[in-house]
């Protein structure tokens, strides 16, 4: 085998890329991943990517926030140092609503985004794993693992048939940013 | 998305011929990838001078204490809280555009959300500075947060709306910042992949290694949706709590249940006016006419009209209830507003907030750029006076006539206010210089459904109701970015 690691099909139009995915899948070519400058709706279903479980994470973080917020208020206002404020009860539930709510939102947002960054390995200074520099500009990229799919000529003709503007054979997996 | 066409009746959100994905990137990144023009420098120098005035005034306040302001023992809150509420209110439009309009699937938000969110963040920064400055001993500002007793103080009083406010504003700022930055990641990656050298390195760090893979986008969209879902009640809660700073007190003129909805409507009103002020200049100077179209301007004017009318009704309701309550203190507070020594502030507020937005019922005014711009500033002047009227006129005539007083601002009050506008514009201009002012990825989403060229293609293909096509052509008349000739060229071939 050659040194080619990945075959990159570069499309100028998202619909043509979707067509390309259909054509490749009909011919049992497995797709490694797609890189696009904008979200493409319906692509997950095509590639068999499971729905994200982030909403569950967000809910768990939110509930944790509710509990933490309420515990803080209960501990300070009712348990640790109850104060007599105009003879009012030391467990003023309505007055606890705003802060509990804010802490819920804060934890939900921060927790969910942190989970998103963690799962996608996004953090400041991470070397971008980009296969084609124009994938963040105007190209819609289908990446195919060259070792898993032997018939490169056929892949190229399928991609071209679907409307690929360019087909590249990359010897390195990712574009170097050096 | 791209597989189904949008109705021809809907007005286009992106105009211009031959707008390709590459052209969208080129157009929006133009100010980021090139040296700033003269207009930017003039604006930036003026803003920076304003910001230095702010540094001097705030520094002087910190050094001498809040005696530097025009406060007296009757009027203990004046410009500081007026400006604070004004800035927080302005911030609300950004969240409204990015969150509420996303939930309602209003696609026109896509080209204005980025700059509106940036505006939110900078406005909240300006607001937060007043909170710190008005404390008198700003180095102890962190005492507003619950710290253990061993620290030397009791726990904070969680019954107090001022404490709720600290939680609300800090949550609001954090969540807005996170929302804004998540949305920026794909666009920063676009800058990164076109840049070279040091610039690429910096944008690479800022992009968090974004690569636009299927899973990244999938999670990105979920995160955006949920952040929008939680930001919506958040933004309502923030100004509700700000209004409770007043409403839970027993000062006549403050102690009213109408305050939360009235403050929220006012906040959206002033926020959209500020977005309008900024975007009308930005689209002209940065040549974004094809992306921020007349449709956007008109839609925002409609929101200003709607929220302005809500605010107007709230003013009248307040007056009615003051009379209907039969409480002589409440009645006096309002007759004092209308005809007391601060009558001019009250009538400025009424004219700017209630009467002037009603002009937007006329389409000609709604779609006129100069008039919209002037009215947007008028609205913000009115909203500043609204807060001034609420705060100062309710306080300055106490229960005991011997302690009645007027409020006169010192140069420090004026300096902090004018300076904070400078700080705001400095931050905003830096944002436009270094980050994409329009969400590139989100505008690209519109290209194959809501753009003029797509609609022109549909017309060319035929199959459309001729009456609907005529309707569409007529709706294009207001666009300043579409010429007469282009409209006439929209023919079935």
TrEMBL record, chain A:
It holds the Pfam family ActD. The keyword Protein transport does not apply. The keyword Metal-binding does not apply. Keywords: Membrane, Transmembrane, Transmembrane helix. The chain crosses the membrane at residues 56-75, 95-118. This is Membrane protein. It comes from Parapedobacter pyrenivorans. The gene is actD.
UniProtKB/TrEMBL annotation, chain B:
It is found in: Cell membrane. Coiled coil: none annotated. It is a multi-pass membrane protein. GO terms for cellular component: plasma membrane. The chain crosses the membrane at residues 39-64, 84-104, 116-142, 162-184, 222-242, 262-282, 303-324, 344-362, 374-395, 415-435. This is Molybdopterin oxidoreductase. The gene is actC. The keyword Protein biosynthesis does not apply. Belongs to the NrfD family. It comes from Parapedobacter pyrenivorans. Keywords: Cell membrane, Membrane, Transmembrane, Transmembrane helix.
């Amino acid at each position: 085998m050659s040194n080619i690691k990945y075959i990159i099909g570069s499309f100028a139009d998202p619909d043509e890329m979707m067509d390309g995915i259909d054509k490749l899948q009909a011919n049992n070519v497995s797709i490694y991943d797609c890189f696009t400058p904008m979200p493409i709706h319906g692509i997950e279903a095509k590639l068999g990517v499971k729905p994200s479980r982030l909403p569950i994470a967000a809910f768990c973080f939110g509930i944790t926030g509710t509990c933490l917020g309420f515990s803080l208020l209960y501990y300070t206002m009712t348990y640790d140092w109850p104060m007599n404020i105009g003879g009012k009860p030391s467990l003023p539930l309505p007055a606890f609503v705003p802060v509990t709510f804010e802490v819920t939102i804060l934890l939900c947002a921060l927790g969910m985004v942190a989970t998103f960054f963690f799962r996608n390995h996004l953090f400041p200074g991470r070397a971008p794993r980009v296969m084609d520099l124009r994938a963040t500009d105007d190209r819609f990229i289908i990446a195919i693992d060259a070792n898993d799919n032997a018939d490169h000529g056929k892949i190229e003709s399928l991609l071209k048939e679907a409307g690929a503007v360019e087909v590249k054979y990359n010897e390195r997996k990712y574009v170097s940013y050096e | 998305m791209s597989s189904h066409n949008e109705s021809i009746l809907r007005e286009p959100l992106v105009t211009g011929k031959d707008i390709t994905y590459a052209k969208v990137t080129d157009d929006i990144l133009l100010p980021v990838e090139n040296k700033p023009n003269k207009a930017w420098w003039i604006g930036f120098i003026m803003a920076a001078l304003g910001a230095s005035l702010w540094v001097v005034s705030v520094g002087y306040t910190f050094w001498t204490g809040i005696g530097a302001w025009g406060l007296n023992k009757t009027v203990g809150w004046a410009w500081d809280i007026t400006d604070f509420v004004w800035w927080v209110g302005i911030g609300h439009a950004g969240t409204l555009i990015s969150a509420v309009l996303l939930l309602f699937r209003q696609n026109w938000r896509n080209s204005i959300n980025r700059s509106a969110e940036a505006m939110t963040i900078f406005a909240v920064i300006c607001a937060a500075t007043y909170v710190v400055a008005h404390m008198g001993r700003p180095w102890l500002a962190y005492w507003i947060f619950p710290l253990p007793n061993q620290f030397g103080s009791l726990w904070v009083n969680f019954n107090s709306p001022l404490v709720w406010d600290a939680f609300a504003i800090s949550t609001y700022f954090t969540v807005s910042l996170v929302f804004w930055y998540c949305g920026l990641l794909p666009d920063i990656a676009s800058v990164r992949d076109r840049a070279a050298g040091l610039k690429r390195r910096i944008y690479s760090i800022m992009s968090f290694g974004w690569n636009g893979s299927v899973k990244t986008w999938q999670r990105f969209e979920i995160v955006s949706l949920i952040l929008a879902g939680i930001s919506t009640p958040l933004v309502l809660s923030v100004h509700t709590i700000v209004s409770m700073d007043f409403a839970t007190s027993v000062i006549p003129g403050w102690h009213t249940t109408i305050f939360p909805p009235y403050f929220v409507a006012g906040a959206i009103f002033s926020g959209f006016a500020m977005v309008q002020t900024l975007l009308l200049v930005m689209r002209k100077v940065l040549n974004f006419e094809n992306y921020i179209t007349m449709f956007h301007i008109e839609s925002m004017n409609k929101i200003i009209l709607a929220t302005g009318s809500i605010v107007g009704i709230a003013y009248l309701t307040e007056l009615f209830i003051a009379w209907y309550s039969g409480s002589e203190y409440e009645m006096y507070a309002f007759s004092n507003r209308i005809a007391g020594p601060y009558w001019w502030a009250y009538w400025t507020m009424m004219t700017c907030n209630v009467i002037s937005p009603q002009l937007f019922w006329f389409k000609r005014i709604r779609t006129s750029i100069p008039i919209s711009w002037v009215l947007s500033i008028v609205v913000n002047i009115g909203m500043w006076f609204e807060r001034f009227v609420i705060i100062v006129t309710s306080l300055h005539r106490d229960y005991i006539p011997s302690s009645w007083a007027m409020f006169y601002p010192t140069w420090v009050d004026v300096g902090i206010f004018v300076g904070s506008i400078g700080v705001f514009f400095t931050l905003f201009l830096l944002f436009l210089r270094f980050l994409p002012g329009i969400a590139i990825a989100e505008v690209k989403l519109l290209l194959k459904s809501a753009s003029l060229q797509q609609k022109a293609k549909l017309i060319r293909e035929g199959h459309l109701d001729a009456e609907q096509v005529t309707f569409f052509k007529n709706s294009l008349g207001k666009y300043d970015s579409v010429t007469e000739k282009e409209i006439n060229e929209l023919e079935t071939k």
